[in-house]
Every structure is written in structure tokens, then in C-alpha cells.
Design brief:
Blueprint (H helix, E strand, L loop, with lengths): L6 E4 L2 E4 L5 E5 L7 H14 L3 E5 L3 H11 L6 E4 L4 H9 L4 E4 L6 H14 L3 E6 L5 H6 L4 H18 L5 E6 L3 H11 L7 E2 L7 H17 L5 E2 L7 H14 L7 E4 L10 H12 L7 E5 L5 H5 L4 E6 L2 E6 L2 E7 H18 L1
Parallel strand pairs: 3-4, 3-10, 4-5, 5-6, 6-7, 7-8, 9-10, 11-12, 12-13
Antiparallel strand pairs: 1-2, 13-14, 14-15
Helix pairs in contact: 1-2, 1-9, 3-4, 6-7, 7-8, 8-9, 10-12
Length: 349
């Protein structure tokens, strides 16, 4: 069961409460490359992204951010570090949400940001992470970084509440999976929407593993209202990774795709076949199960509970629908024929 939180509006999207878990990513170009930034946003949206974050490191970036804002309807978050004036400028430029680390600002500067966000009805994500944990909090926690991060975030939340600002999204991240999970469990009781992920997780394969362990553990606990799978990779891979996690946990509609790991019995190019089929269905929001198998041993059994399945051996593929064998196709046309069958099924759904 999902942890109950306040609901926060980000442009035309709500997170928290009973809303679905939202997927977000972050552009990895300078926002001054307006066309490139828009292209990344478009590809991420097609892949299933709900929110995009953009780094805004200087005044030139604010101007570019405003141009991007005018050319997309995607909810946009301005990522701000150190300079409170950029946070104010980004809000005035149309940011739907801002991300700040309050520890990087004086209280008077933070007050100015809060006032501007209040005036424009823009939510604020408070972010603290393992790399910038407050040393005093760390000392008080006797070196327990999870406790230190929890204390730091709770202090900021109290300050915002004293200022009567409640449109908050909370985020505590670490490169350490256990630390990320422990800290998010500690802050879950605060009642605000939580942004979860494992920060600086690494390259594609390693990063997906670390994020899946951390994000998956928290989602199974009912914690998490928006997720970002941080990767040193194309942002669209973050979106697909996040979507696959949510579909696997039954938290989002989408195609469940299964394929066998391949063994010495396999006589087809299973990896190529499975990849082509997966690429055809990965953007679908239909709740269907597709199976691609590489031999006659596991094929029929693994395809039996799939809406559609194909099992190949010796240049032929057998097609299955809802567990029943119904067609045999030559290998050289099997993938295209299977795609047509998928399209017919998804049209019916």
C-alpha cells in the first residue's frame, strides 16, 4: 500500500496522494542548446516521461530555459545550486517546480525563494544527498549518514512550514543503496511527496542494477511518488528503466516482456529477435504480456501465460496466443509477422 502524502501540482500533473508514481529524467545538454534540449524532452516524453529537470547554472541558462518553456507542454523543473537569484529568475521564467539544496543558501536568501515560489504557486523540491551532508548533523549522528541526512531534511521541512510553505517534494539520495533506502524510510513519515532514486549510480548496466535495488525496495514499501533512474547515459534510458520498474511492480500500465536467457539448444539469433520485438512494444501502455523464446524446451511453457508468444527452432517459429499454439511461420518473416499480431492485439485492447 502506498504511503499517504500531500498532493502537489506540477503544471498539469499531480504527484503524491493517490496519484500514480511519476517518471522523471534530466536533460544532459546545456539548456543554451535549446533545440537539442527540446529534442531530448520530446524523446523522453515519447518513452513515457512525465517530468523533465533542467540544470540552470547561470543567467544565460535562465533565458534559454524560458525559450524551452514556451515550446513544450512537459512539466519542467529548474535545477538550482548555490545562487538563490537563479531560483527566483527560473520561477519567473516559467519553471513548474524548482529543485534546491537549502543548505547552499542563507536564510534570508531562502526566504526570498520561498516568497517567490508562493507568489507563483510553484512547488519546491528540497534535495539533500550523501555528498553534501551537513558535518554538524553527521557529528550528532555519530557518523550515521542516514540519520544525518534525515535530521538535515527534517530541519529544512520545519523551516518551510514555519514560513507557511507546504508545496514541498522531499528528496534524500546517496550513491550507496542501503543508505538511500534507510534514509527514505526515515523521512516517509513527514507526509510530503517523495522523489526517490540512487544518485550517481554509474553507467547503464551498473546504474540500472543499483537503481532497481534502491527504488524497488522503497516502492515495495509504499514509499515514492516520483522516481528518477540516474544513469551516465542517454536520458531516454532513464525513462525506460523507470517505466520497466513500475510495470514490473504493477504500478504502471505497460507491456510485460519476457525472453529466455538462451542456452546451447538455441538455434536462432534470439538476442536480435527479442530486441526487435521489444523495440516494437516498449512504448506501449497496454497491459499485455509478450514472450519470445529460443527453443522447443521452454518455449511452449513460457508462452503459455503470455497474451502473445513466439518460440523459434531450426528456422521456424511457432506463435502462441493466450497459451494456445495457432501458427507456424518461417524464420525470415517471423518478426514482421509477429509485430502484426501484436498490433492487432493492442488495437483490440
Amino acid at each position: 500500500m502506498r504511503n499517504k502524502t500531500r498532493q502537489v501540482r506540477i503544471r498539469n500533473l499531480y504527484i503524491g496522494g493517490d496519484q500514480p508514481v511519476a517518471i522523471q529524467s534530466m536533460t544532459n545538454l546545456s539548456v543554451t542548446d535549446v533545440d537539442g534540449t527540446l529534442e531530448q524532452i520530446k524523446r523522453c516524453k515519447v518513452a513515457g516521461c512525465d517530468i523533465m529537470r533542467i540544470a540552470v547554472p547561470n543567467s544565460e541558462s535562465v533565458k534559454a530555459f524560458e525559450k524551452v518553456r514556451l515550446q513544450t507542454d512537459m512539466p519542467l523543473v529548474a535545477d538550482i545550486h548555490f545562487d538563490w537569484r537563479l531560483a527566483v529568475q527560473a520561477i519567473e521564467a516559467g519553471a513548474d517546480k524548482i529543485r534546491i539544496n537549502p543548505g547552499n543558501m542563507s536564510l534570508s536568501q531562502l526566504d526570498s525563494v520561498i516568497a517567490c515560489a508562493n507568489d507563483h504557486h510553484v512547488p519546491i523540491r528540497i534535495g539533500v544527498n550523501g555528498g553534501s551532508v551537513n558535518k554538524e548533523d553527521l557529528n550528532r549522528a555519530k557518523g550515521n549518514r542516514a540519520e544525518a541526512l534525515n535530521s538535515s531534511l527534517r530541519r529544512y521541512v520545519r523551516y518551510f512550514e514555519e514560513k507557511k510553505f507546504y508545496d514541498l517534494v522531499l528528496s534524500v539520495k546517496s550513491t550507496d543503496v542501503r543508505e538511500t533506502v534507510q534514509t527514505n524510510r526515515l523521512i516517509a513519515s513527514l507526509g510530503y511527496p517523495v522523489h526517490i532514486g540512487v544518485t550517481e549510480a554509474g553507467l547503464l548496466c551498473q546504474g540500472l542494477v543499483k537503481n532497481a535495488m534502491g527504488i524497488g525496495a522503497l516502492l515495495l514499501d509504499g514509499i515514492g511518488d516520483t522516481i528518477r533512474v540516474s544513469l551516465t547515459s542517454d536520458p531516454v534510458n532513464e525513462v525506460y528503466g523507470a517505466k520497466d520498474m513500475l510495470v514490473a511492480l504493477g504500478l504502471k500500465k505497460g507491456v510485460t516482456f519476457v525472453s529466455c536467457p538462451k542456452c546451447g539448444r538455441c538455434s536462432i539469433d534470439l538476442e536480435k529477435t527479442a530486441q526487435e520485438v521489444y523495440d516494437h512494444v516498449k512504448n506501449s501502455d497496454k497491459n499485455i504480456k509478450i514472450a519470445v523464446m529460443g527453443c522447443e524446451v521452454n518455449g511452449p511453457g513460457e508462452c503459455s501465460d503470455a497474451d502473445l508468444g513466439m518460440a523459434g527452432a531450426n528456422g521456424k517459429f511457432v506463435f502462441f496466443k493466450h497459451g494456445s499454439r495457432y501458427k507456424m511461420v518461417d524464420g525470415d518473416v517471423a518478426v514482421e509477422e509477429f509485430k502484426k499480431e501484436i498490433d492487432l492485439l493492442t488495437d483490440d485492447n
